[in-house]
Design brief:
The chain has 248 residues and is an alpha+beta fold. The chain is built from 4 helices and 10 strands; from the N terminus they run E-E-E-E-E-E-E-E-E-E-H-H-H-H. The strands form 3 sheets. Strands 4-10-9-6-7 form a 5-stranded mixed beta sheet, covered by helices on one side. A hairpin with a 7-residue loop joins strand 6 and strand 7.
Length: 248
């Protein structure tokens, strides 16, 4: 059982969170939303306990080659969710005919919990994997590693294009959320989740909002800032270019 401590410091309209002791987050919901254009204000505050190097695959490099690039939209550390059946997000640089395989396994286990093909995306961009739709439930306080692979050669996996990350489900008392579960999905709840280290819940929410309103610039900027916070600048720039494309 992990206990994260939160001390809320409110300065003007800004919000800074330092993890040092259990504290109610009643003031969070009342804070004004920072501008996504303010790159100096990180939206995502990661848990400080976890070591880095959990992400598989790196930054988006470019799409000049014939093969697509895949990027897991995750930080380079074990990232958290409060949901037993969360949504995972990844990025495909362009359409492909390669089979796309999703693999999930508990870090302490050798055999995958799940390994099956996903429907091949019809276009490039941000993609989603709904664990609830796949019948997968995460146990609390267990670290799971997940991968998305584009299989270039059916006879050998050594040439797969692979990206992935690590996810852990924390229960309410371990997740800094003392105001109760966040059951809504809106601009504010994205920020509350991100400020409290719940990366997967923040990213899944903003992605679903963009799917519903793909032409809304503020949502694209919000997701781009979250991606910049974890070093995925290439995908963030793709999001920002999408704003310009929608204008013309």
């Amino acid at each position: 059982m992990r206990t994260f401590v939160g001390l809320i410091l409110i300065v003007g309209t800004g919000l800074a969170i330092a993890f040092s002791g259990t504290s109610a987050l009643d003031a969070v919901a009342e804070q004004s939303v920072a501008s996504p254009d303010d790159a100096s204000t990180p939206f995502y505050i990661p848990p400080k306990k976890y070591a880095p190097r959990a992400r598989v695959g790196g930054e988006l490099r470019g799409t000049e080659g014939k093969d697509p690039e895949i990027v897991a939209l995750v930080p380079d550390h074990v990232a958290l969710t409060m949901k037993p059946t969360p949504v995972l997000n990844w990025f495909l640089s362009k359409p492909t005919t390669y089979p796309i395989i999703f693999t999930l396994n508990a870090v302490q286990q050798v055999q995958p919990i799940y390994e099956k093909p996903l429907p091949t995306p019809k276009q490039g961009g941000v993609q989603s994997i709904d664990l609830k739709a796949l019948g997968i439930t995460l146990e609390p306080n267990v670290q799971y590693r997940w991968y998305v692979s584009a299989r270039r050669n059916s006879d050998s996996h050594s040439n797969d294009i692979v990206a992935g990350g690590v996810i852990e489900r924390c229960e309410i008392n371990d997740c800094l959320i003392t105001i109760g579960p966040i059951t809504t999905c809106d601009h504010q709840s994205v920020l509350i989740n991100a400020k409290n280290g719940l990366w997967y819940d923040a990213m899944a929410c903003v992605c679903s909002l963009i799917d519903a309103r793909p032409g809304e610039p503020s949502l694209r900027r919000l997701r781009a800032q979250l991606l910049k916070d974890i070093g995925l600048h290439g995908v963030a720039e793709w999001d920002l270019r999408s704003i310009q494309s929608a204008l013309y």
